[in-house]
Design brief:
2 domains; alpha+beta; single chain; 203 residues; seven-stranded mixed β-sheet; three-stranded antiparallel β-sheet
Length: 203
């Protein structure tokens, strides 16, 4: 009877295109561009959609690159122009809508902030990371701290991972100690993985 009354093992992750089992950690994601949703994919399926326009453009494979541009720093005035009420936000280009989208974590999930093209251009548009940003599948991830504002080019799926983690841990007005510790750990991982933009790729 124990095997029926005990906790059930977690259901294995499967590729949402072909049904093949995939590891819980380390598998790739696709962006379903029309619905702005993430889809789990096995390696063979993810390779089918790694180029823009593959498969009619319905899916795009999320890249795994992390970049930083140490020469492009944002000051407090630039952050104020973005009108983001918290210290973390991410920005990506929605190809279907042909516009930029700004989102930030909140207790309710990903909250969208209005971002006009002129503000984007003056604050982030002239940076090398913005020139390299792939629509739909990559984002510019910003974090403001008392001494600086960091900007990274990252896969879009880790931004939604961060949103989910903050929603789960958020307590009180400012998120609470557990959420802040998770945020610090998250950005430490991003910093370790990020490499400087190579000079030969200067736009």
């Amino acid at each position: 009877m124990r095997r029926f009354t005990g906790p059930r093992p977690p259901r294995p992750e499967v590729c949402e295109l072909c049904g093949t089992a995939v590891p819980q950690d380390g598998h790739r994601h696709l962006v379903e561009t029309e619905r702005r949703s993430l889809v789990c994919a096995c390696p063979p399926c993810s390779l089918l959609f790694d180029r823009p326009g593959s498969g009619g453009g319905r899916y795009r494979t999320v890249p795994d690159r992390y970049l930083t541009d140490p020469g492009h720093r944002l000051d407090d005035g630039a952050w104020d122009l973005l009108r983001i009420p918290v210290g973390v936000a991410f920005f990506f280009r929605n190809a279907a809508l042909d516009r930029l989208v700004a989102l930030y974590p909140s207790p309710a999930g990903a909250t969208e902030s209005e971002l006009d093209p002129e503000t984007w251009q003056s604050v982030l548009g002239t940076g090398r990371l913005a020139a390299l940003l792939e629509p739909d599948v990559e984002a510019l991830l910003l974090r403001r701290t008392p001494d600086r504002t960091d900007c990274f080019l990252v896969p879009i799926d880790i931004c939604y991972e961060l949103v989910g983690r903050m929603r789960l841990l958020w307590q009180g007005f400012d998120g609470g100690a557990e959420a802040r510790a998770a945020l610090d750990a998250f950005f430490q991982t991003v910093e370790r993985r990020a490499t400087p933009v190579p000079e030969e790729r200067r736009p």
